[in-house]
Amino acid sequence: NAGVTQTPKFQVLKTGQSMTLQCAQDMNHEYMSWYRQDPGMGLRLIHYSVGAGITDQGEVPNGYNVSRSTTEDFPLRLLSAAPSQTSVYFCASSPDWTDSYEQYFGPGTRLTVT
Amino acid sequence: KQEVTQIPAALSVPEGENLVLNCSFTDSAIYNLQWFRQDPGKGLTSLLLIQSSQREQTSGRLNASLDKSSGRSTLYIAASQPGDSATYLCAVRPPKRETSGSRLTFGEGTQLTVNP
Q1: CA angle, B91 as apex, B88 and B92 as ends, to 5°?
Q2: A48-70 pLDDT tens trace
Q3: Rounded to whole angstroms, how far apart are CA atoms B112 and B99?
Q4: How far is A27 from chain B (nearest CA, A)?
């Protein structure tokens, strides 16, 4: 298994540009989530999904959209990038949100918005 | 709102030393607690998962304990090695009954350096 994969690894955007961060997992996990990691603030939950077709907001959802059309993929969209969205983004998955499984993280996408 | 604190923020020790990393959380109503390791520029690797009903978990040279009533967890690393150098993060998960599902609340981590 490749586990949780994220693309791209690095990205530089200009203010106002849009882009999609890709996340995929090949473990047939129901639960997927997106976090951002910022110095002094730790990891914070952006959006999550408990299964295909079901998404919900986390702690810091503003400026981000998600969808979950398949079990494998959970893309994160920035519609109009802002400098405040400069961060490292991590995607995570676990087998079932209702149970005690640990979460598996992808390698991250480092995004810079100028 | 759950808050997770990790002390110290950074730690430097000589190789071979046994060490303890601390994690505290404000709301004792947790479902489980997970310790992660993060290498520079990399993602998070899960080390240990402790259920709320457990007191400790062990994996190799790592031992994690949980005292839910006092809101504390410790990660004990025995006979530290330079390869243990990384940032160690703890994260707590809320009870099942919450609609937030499997969301984790993270501490900011302890940056560990083990010197040869």
Answers
A1: 155
A2: 998 899 999 988 999 999 999 99
A3: 35
A4: 16
